[in-house]
Amino acid sequence: MMRAALAASVMVLAGCVTGYHAIDPTGGYSEMQLNTNTFQVRFVGNMNSDPGLVARLVLRRCAEITLEHGRRYFLIQQESRAAWETASDAQATMTILDAADAPPSAADAAVVVRETNLAARGQLSRAARETLAKLGLGPAPAPVPASVH
Length: 149
Fold this sequence. Notes:
There is one protein chain. This protein has 149 residues and is of the alpha+beta class. Helix content is 36%, strand content 22%. Strands 1-2-4-3-5 form a five-stranded antiparallel beta sheet. Strand 1 (28-35) and strand 2 (38-44) form a beta hairpin. Helix 2 packs across helix 4 (109-116) and helix 2 (51-68) crosses helix 5.
């Protein structure tokens, strides 16, 4: 009985796509701070993760880091496009910018959060939500309950 339950659990988990969360054995995001405003951000999916979803979630993490630092804009300095197109592992080097220094090509973290909210099931740190509120952009939508796979 116990073996059957364990086997069923493994089969259910094997079919799930990696969710938006800090890295663990199932995947997720991680980052390394390179200097005050520059980060190497990575999102690792699993074999069931769509590469497009993985690319959106690495951008989501870039936006969240930007908001956690009290800022709204960031610039992708370098990205791992090949991985985004073919695999469930995406990386980006991003720099957080002051609004006055943001070129037209800079990403708006508030827009990225809004556009990726469904993919991330509404997961967003408290610090990022607080920055959105301070910027007068209101709180991000509440987290979406995880569905059973």
